[in-house]
Specification:
Layout (H helix, E strand, L loop, with lengths): L1 E8 L11 E15 L8 E13 L8 E15 L4 E15 L19 E18 L2 E17 L6 E21 L2 E18 L7 H4 L1 E16 L3 E12 L3 E15 L2 E12 L15 E13 L3 E19 L5 E20 L4 E15 L4 H6 L17 E11 L2 E10 L2 E6 L2 E5 L2 E13 L5 E9 L18 E9 L3
Antiparallel strand pairs: 1-2, 1-24, 2-3, 3-4, 4-5, 5-6, 6-7, 7-8, 8-9, 9-10, 10-11, 11-12, 12-13, 13-14, 14-15, 15-16, 16-17, 17-18, 18-19, 19-22, 20-21, 22-23, 23-24
């Protein structure tokens, strides 16, 4: 696939920012996939390899230029009459961002870019998933995943400063799949998971190691059981026990029920508890952060027929020790005593005549910080970020959208619009400001060419922010303007 186009950027009033204008953007990618031995009766190998490169000379508010390269590869093996399945994957991504400088080559004076000229990022992940069917409906499995993230920045007067984090995860399990007895279907899974996280500052940043570098180990036991009574009533229960090296043991239960009133209407409800341990980046200069503890309730109804579908969910949740960013003083993350959420989600699909369809979605969300004025918050002078009995930052009360699509022979076109309601944000550590709502419109269209050998090629057009609306999705950060991309794809798979 190859595509190219233009991105329009708005002028910035702050010293050191770009003057706006139109910038060239190009993307190139190539992917190859298919079976290595299609005719084999026992061992089957499937593979895919994809490479992508993106250049953008005006992509975001603080960027003079941005480029990204990524490699994605997969190899799947099926053998022993489909009893043994091995899935492997590799993803590698490199990104470089160059920030604005003035006509003398100095970095702009705006605080968010002062002293910064380049930002390098490297992401790497890989994994292997293996399952073996020991009996009918019964499997054992093993998953391994590895994640590595490295960032380096260079300011105007020194060498690179970089930090890295990596995570290894091992998962062993036994699984019962769709075992049916007297019209009742059973599913279950029992497993053990081990996670090893490590991080540190590296080059030219040894003074940060005390605050940032650490090793963390988590051992987890989990179980899930699901029973389906005659395709009418489904009950799901699960329990997870996490043993964290620093935070001790935690139990997280989950319970859900769903019931078909008739073939078209289903009602459902559930309760769950969960825990979110502080991330490696969040614990910089805050090694005593507590984990977030979450408790949620929901109830909903689904309706579907041949012409349209509708899904409605009411939810209510509470988070204790919510991890929040403190911008004043020495910037770092802190625990907020409690946060509450409640609202509803609505989504659906309407199938119209002549291959025309309309998708819709809407969310209403109420949030509130509770007991925010504790000792930590007061000593942080952090009232703008988290105020007691006030809405949480950057959570719009209303949001939603529509996607209208049309298929005609080899043509496809889709027009989408999304709405983001007003939400509170912070100007600085003592000033909260209301960030106003905005609409976003986009368009996608393609035409598919069919060749005699079964291969397909496609030309496509993508337009983002179609009406070039100037808005701040995050306060004081102007979002990208209109982007127009034209591209070509060629598919050699049959």
């Amino acid at each position: 696939m190859a595509s190219m186009g233009f991105n329009q950027s708005f002028s910035k009033d702050t010293v050191g920012q770009t003057d706006g204008g139109t910038f060239f953007v190009n993307e190139e990618s190539i992917s190859i996939s298919g079976p290595l031995n299609k005719d084999s009766n026992d061992v089957r190998l499937d593979y895919s390899i994809a490479f992508q490169r993106v250049d953008d000379d005006g992509f975001r508010i603080f960027n003079d230029s941005f480029n990204n390269k990524s490699l994605n590869a997969k190899l799947n093996i099926t053998a022993l009459e489909n009893k043994l399945k091995i899935r492997s994957n590799l993803f590698d991504s490199w990104a470089t961002v160059r920030y604005p400088t003035n006509n003398t080559g100095a970095v702009g004076s705006y605080s968010s870019t002062s002293g910064t000229q380049r930002d390098f990022r490297h992401l790497n992940s890989r994994g292997v998933s293996t399952t073996y069917e020991i009996y009918d409906y019964s499997q054992i499995g093993f998953d391994y995943s590895y994640f590595f993230n490295k960032r380096a920045t260079r300011d105007s007067g020194s060498s690179n400063v970089d930090w890295w984090e990596k995570k290894k995860k091992y998962n062993y399990y036994y699984k019962l799949n769709n075992y049916v007895n007297s019209g009742i279907t059973f599913n279950s899974k029992l497993g053990f998971e081990y996670t090893d996280e490590r991080s540190n500052y590296h080059t030219n940043a040894s003074s940060y190691a005390t605050d940032y570098g650490h090793n963390t180990y988590v051992e987890s036991f989990y179980g899930m059981f699901s029973i389906n009574f005659y395709e009418s009533l489904v009950a799901d229960v699960a329990l997870r026990k996490d043993d964290h090296e620093y935070h001790g043991s935690t139990y997280s239960p989950t319970m859900f029920l769903s019931k078909f009133i008739n073939p078209q209407i289903k009602i459902r409800g559930g309760y769950s508890q969960g825990i979110k341990y502080p991330g490696i980046y969040e614990t910089y200069s805050a090694i005593n952060l507590k984990p977030e503890e979450n408790e949620s309730y929901e109830i909903g109804v689904d309706y579907q027929n041949n012409m349209y579908s509708l899904s409605l969910t009411l939810f209510k949740s509470k988070s204790d020790n919510m991890i929040a960013y403190r911008s004043s003083g020495s910037p770092s993350y802190r625990n907020l005593d409690e946060a509450k959420y409640q609202g509803l989600e609505l989504s659906g699909l309407l199938k119209l005549q002549n291959e025309l369809s309309l998708r819709y979605f809407f969310t209403y969300l109420e949030t509130k910080a509770v007991n925010a004025n504790n000792t930590v918050q007061q000593n942080s002078y952090n009232y703008a970020n988290w105020q007691n009995d006030e809405a949480l930052l950057r959570r719009p009360k209303t949001s939603g959208g529509l996607i209208l699509s049309k298929t005609y022979e080899n043509y496809f076109v889709s027009i989408d619009t999304t709405y983001t309601g007003g939400r509170w944000d912070y100007e600085n550590s003592s000033t909260r400001l209301y960030n106003h709502s905005y609409w976003d419109f986009g368009l996608y269209s393609d035409y598919t060419f069919n060749s005699n050998n079964g291969y397909k090629s496609k030309i496509f057009l993508t337009i983002s922010n179609m009406f070039n609306d100037k808005r701040e999705e995050i306060l004081n950060f102007t979002s990208p303007g209109r982007t127009v991309m034209v591209g070509f794809r060629y598919d050699t798979s049959n």
